[in-house]
Write a structure and sequence with these properties.
Radius of gyration: 14 Å
Largest sheet: 5 strands, mixed
Oligomer: single chain
Distance between the termini: 6 Å
Structural class: alpha/beta
CATH class: Alpha Beta
Number of helices: 4
Order of helices and strands: EEEHEHEHH
Strand content: 15-25%
Length: about 140
Protein backbone atom coordinates (compact mmCIF):
# COMPACT_ATOMS: atom_id res chain seq x y z
CA UNK A 1 0.00 0.00 0.00
CA UNK A 2 1.28 3.44 -0.86
CA UNK A 3 0.54 6.62 1.04
CA UNK A 4 0.40 10.17 -0.27
CA UNK A 5 1.62 13.01 1.97
CA UNK A 6 0.42 16.58 1.48
CA UNK A 7 1.52 19.95 2.84
CA UNK A 8 -1.48 22.22 2.16
CA UNK A 9 -0.76 25.94 1.91
CA UNK A 10 -2.58 29.04 0.74
CA UNK A 11 -1.16 28.89 -2.79
CA UNK A 12 0.71 25.60 -2.96
CA UNK A 13 0.40 21.96 -1.98
CA UNK A 14 3.57 19.98 -1.45
CA UNK A 15 3.24 16.33 -2.46
CA UNK A 16 5.20 13.28 -1.31
CA UNK A 17 4.70 9.53 -1.68
CA UNK A 18 6.14 6.56 0.13
CA UNK A 19 7.83 3.60 -1.49
CA UNK A 20 5.79 0.38 -1.84
CA UNK A 21 7.25 -0.98 1.43
CA UNK A 22 6.03 2.04 3.37
CA UNK A 23 9.44 2.86 4.77
CA UNK A 24 10.67 5.89 2.84
CA UNK A 25 8.89 9.11 1.90
CA UNK A 26 10.02 11.14 -1.08
CA UNK A 27 8.87 14.53 -2.33
CA UNK A 28 7.21 14.39 -5.73
CA UNK A 29 6.08 17.88 -6.70
CA UNK A 30 4.60 21.17 -5.62
CA UNK A 31 1.16 22.00 -6.98
CA UNK A 32 0.73 25.75 -7.40
CA UNK A 33 -2.48 27.72 -7.82
CA UNK A 34 -2.99 31.41 -8.54
CA UNK A 35 -5.63 32.04 -5.88
CA UNK A 36 -6.18 30.66 -2.41
CA UNK A 37 -9.75 29.44 -2.90
CA UNK A 38 -9.28 27.96 -6.38
CA UNK A 39 -8.93 24.27 -5.59
CA UNK A 40 -10.52 22.44 -8.52
CA UNK A 41 -7.28 21.98 -10.49
CA UNK A 42 -5.37 21.15 -7.29
CA UNK A 43 -7.86 18.43 -6.37
CA UNK A 44 -7.76 17.07 -9.93
CA UNK A 45 -3.95 16.83 -9.82
CA UNK A 46 -4.02 15.08 -6.44
CA UNK A 47 -6.58 12.65 -7.82
CA UNK A 48 -4.28 11.97 -10.82
CA UNK A 49 -1.29 11.37 -8.53
CA UNK A 50 -3.34 9.07 -6.29
CA UNK A 51 -4.24 6.95 -9.31
CA UNK A 52 -0.71 7.02 -10.75
CA UNK A 53 0.89 5.85 -7.50
CA UNK A 54 -1.98 3.53 -6.50
CA UNK A 55 -2.49 5.44 -3.25
CA UNK A 56 -4.66 3.92 -0.53
CA UNK A 57 -4.36 6.62 2.17
CA UNK A 58 -3.66 10.34 2.21
CA UNK A 59 -1.76 11.98 5.09
CA UNK A 60 -2.48 15.69 5.24
CA UNK A 61 -0.36 18.04 7.32
CA UNK A 62 -2.45 19.58 10.10
CA UNK A 63 -1.18 23.04 11.09
CA UNK A 64 -2.16 23.26 14.74
CA UNK A 65 -0.96 26.24 16.73
CA UNK A 66 2.08 25.80 18.96
CA UNK A 67 -0.22 25.78 22.02
CA UNK A 68 -2.11 22.81 20.48
CA UNK A 69 -5.19 24.87 19.59
CA UNK A 70 -6.92 24.80 16.22
CA UNK A 71 -6.71 28.09 14.36
CA UNK A 72 -8.01 29.37 11.04
CA UNK A 73 -5.37 27.52 8.94
CA UNK A 74 -6.19 24.22 10.65
CA UNK A 75 -9.91 24.74 10.04
CA UNK A 76 -9.24 25.38 6.35
CA UNK A 77 -7.13 22.22 6.29
CA UNK A 78 -10.04 20.26 7.79
CA UNK A 79 -12.28 21.58 4.99
CA UNK A 80 -9.66 20.58 2.41
CA UNK A 81 -9.49 17.09 3.98
CA UNK A 82 -13.25 16.72 3.46
CA UNK A 83 -12.89 17.81 -0.17
CA UNK A 84 -10.11 15.23 -0.66
CA UNK A 85 -12.24 12.45 0.83
CA UNK A 86 -15.16 13.30 -1.44
CA UNK A 87 -13.02 13.71 -4.55
CA UNK A 88 -10.75 10.66 -4.15
CA UNK A 89 -12.82 8.31 -2.00
CA UNK A 90 -9.68 7.69 0.06
CA UNK A 91 -9.21 7.95 3.82
CA UNK A 92 -7.48 11.17 4.88
CA UNK A 93 -5.40 11.28 8.06
CA UNK A 94 -4.68 14.67 9.61
CA UNK A 95 -1.08 14.66 10.89
CA UNK A 96 0.54 17.32 13.08
CA UNK A 97 2.83 19.37 10.89
CA UNK A 98 4.14 21.93 13.37
CA UNK A 99 7.62 23.17 12.43
CA UNK A 100 7.91 21.00 9.30
CA UNK A 101 8.47 24.02 7.04
CA UNK A 102 11.22 25.20 9.39
CA UNK A 103 12.80 21.73 9.26
CA UNK A 104 12.48 21.67 5.46
CA UNK A 105 14.19 25.05 5.20
CA UNK A 106 17.04 23.83 7.44
CA UNK A 107 17.49 20.70 5.31
CA UNK A 108 17.61 22.76 2.14
CA UNK A 109 20.06 25.26 3.67
CA UNK A 110 22.34 22.45 4.87
CA UNK A 111 22.17 20.94 1.39
CA UNK A 112 23.42 24.20 -0.10
CA UNK A 113 20.21 25.13 -1.90
CA UNK A 114 20.23 28.91 -2.44
CA UNK A 115 17.51 30.89 -0.68
CA UNK A 116 16.11 31.97 -4.06
CA UNK A 117 15.61 28.32 -5.08
CA UNK A 118 14.17 27.02 -1.79
CA UNK A 119 10.71 28.47 -2.35
CA UNK A 120 10.29 26.22 -5.40
CA UNK A 121 10.82 23.00 -3.43
CA UNK A 122 10.21 23.73 0.26
CA UNK A 123 6.58 22.54 0.22
CA UNK A 124 7.44 19.22 -1.40
CA UNK A 125 10.24 18.71 1.15
CA UNK A 126 7.82 19.59 3.98
CA UNK A 127 5.33 17.05 2.58
CA UNK A 128 8.09 14.45 2.67
CA UNK A 129 8.83 15.28 6.30
CA UNK A 130 5.14 15.03 7.23
CA UNK A 131 4.79 11.69 5.49
CA UNK A 132 8.03 10.29 6.89
CA UNK A 133 6.97 11.26 10.42
CA UNK A 134 3.67 9.46 9.86
CA UNK A 135 5.45 6.37 8.49
CA UNK A 136 7.87 6.32 11.42
CA UNK A 137 5.26 6.88 14.12
CA UNK A 138 1.76 5.89 13.11
CA UNK A 139 1.60 3.77 9.99
CA UNK A 140 0.18 0.31 10.68
CA UNK A 141 2.95 -2.21 11.29
CA UNK A 142 1.61 -5.37 9.69
CA UNK A 143 4.45 -6.06 7.32
CA UNK A 144 2.86 -3.66 4.85
CA UNK A 145 1.87 -0.04 5.19
Amino acid sequence: MRILGLDFGTKTVGVAVCDPTGLIAQGVETITRKEDGKLRATLRRIEELAAEYQIETIVLGYPKNMDDTVGERAKRTEEFAEMLKRRTGLPVVLWDERLTTVAADEILAESGVPVTERKKVIDKVAAGIILQDYLDNAAPRTGKV
